[in-house]
């Protein structure tokens, strides 16, 4: 049991698609979801720039098309990418949002969820600052679990088994969140969340929507 105080509850402001208390950093790398698209999937990613190094603000710059191609040899080939995610959870648990929930962030690329392509259309992307060979921080799991449960309350079509890794929907192309990601820990946290789990208070999230 942790003695740490619980982080403040989340609120989704429908008009803006922003979740508080995430710090909003606007990315241009997004567009409207297709008409009729429902938010049904959470995609968990990991990213670090350069790989295995943390901090420095490079992820934020990549997602806002301001990454300096000359700042590191590895940046030259990625600095022209137009990518984003809805959320980023940094090593210290800090939560950033780049794209309003109702818009399509460009995180999954070529992808396939149970036969359905273009997973960006119907998903929310959450990046963890991390890589394939470092364990993630406890505070990252805590933030991710709370955020996932909140989003599942807001969007009941996100069932517990619709929480997947990038590697699950882009097999052979992507490895993140990688072998160090503790799926049992996240699965335990989201097992009872979401409307499809039949939880009678599955609309409790509504009280946090304004
Ligand atoms: Zn990814």
Please outline the helices and strands:
Elements: E1 11-13, E2 18-20, E3 23-24, E4 30-32, E5 41-47, H1 58-63, E6 87-89, E7 95-97, E8 103-105, E9 112-113, E10 116-117, E11 123-129, H2 138-154, E12 163-165, H3 166-169, H4 183-190
Helix pairs in contact: 2-4
This protein binds zinc ion.
The site of zinc ion has 4 residues, from loops.
What does this structure look like?
- Helix 2 runs parallel beside helix 4 (183-190).
- This protein is of the alpha/beta class and 210 residues long.
- Strand 9 and strand 10 form a beta hairpin.
- The relative contact order is 0.20.
- Mean pLDDT is 92; it is low at 196-206.
- The chain has a domain at 20-49 and 83-195: 3-Layer(aba) Sandwich (Lysozyme-like).
- The strands form four sheets. It has a six-stranded mixed β-sheet with strand order 3-7-6-11-5-12. Strands 1-2 form a two-stranded antiparallel sheet.
- It has helices spanning 58-63, 138-154, 166-169, 183-190; strands at 11-13, 18-20, 23-24, 30-32, 41-47, 87-89, 95-97, 103-105, 112-113, 116-117, 123-129, 163-165.
Strand content: 15-25%
Q: Summarize model confidence as the mean pLDDT.
A: 92
How is the biggest beta sheet arranged?
6 strands, mixed
Helices, by number, come to 4
* Structure class: alpha/beta
Taken from the alpha-carbon principal axes, the silhouette is globular
Bound molecules: zinc ion
CATH architecture of the domain at 20-49 and 83-195: 3-Layer(aba) Sandwich
Portion of residues within helices: 10-25%
State the name of the first-level CATH class of the domain at 20-49 and 83-195.
Answer: Alpha Beta
Terminal Cα span: 32 Å
């Amino acid at each position: 049991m942790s003695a740490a105080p619980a982080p403040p509850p989340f609120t989704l402001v429908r008009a803006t698609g922003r979740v508080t208390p995430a710090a909003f950093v606007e990315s241009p790398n997004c567009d409207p979801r297709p008409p009729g698209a429902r938010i049904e999937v959470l995609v968990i990613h990991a990213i670090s720039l350069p790989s295995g190094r943390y901090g420095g603000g490079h992820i934020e710059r990549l997602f806002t098309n301001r990454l300096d191609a000359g700042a590191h040899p590895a940046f030259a080939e990625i600095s022209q990418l137009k990518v984003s995610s809805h959320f980023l959870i940094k090593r210290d648990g800090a939560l950033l949002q780049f794209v309003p929930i109702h818009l399509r962030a460009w995180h999954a690329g070529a992808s396939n969820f149970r036969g359905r392509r273009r997973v960006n259309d119907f998903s929310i992307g959450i990046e963890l600052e991390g890589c394939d060979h470092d364990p993630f921080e406890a505070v990252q799991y805590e933030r991710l679990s709370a955020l996932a449960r909140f989003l599942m309350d807001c969007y009941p079509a996100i069932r517990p088994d619709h929480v997947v890794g990038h590697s699950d929907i882009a097999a052979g192309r992507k490895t993140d969140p990688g072998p160090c990601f503790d799926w049992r820990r996240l699965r335990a946290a989201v097992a009872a969340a979401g409307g499809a789990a039949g939880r009678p208070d599955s609309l409790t999230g509504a009280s946090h929507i304004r």
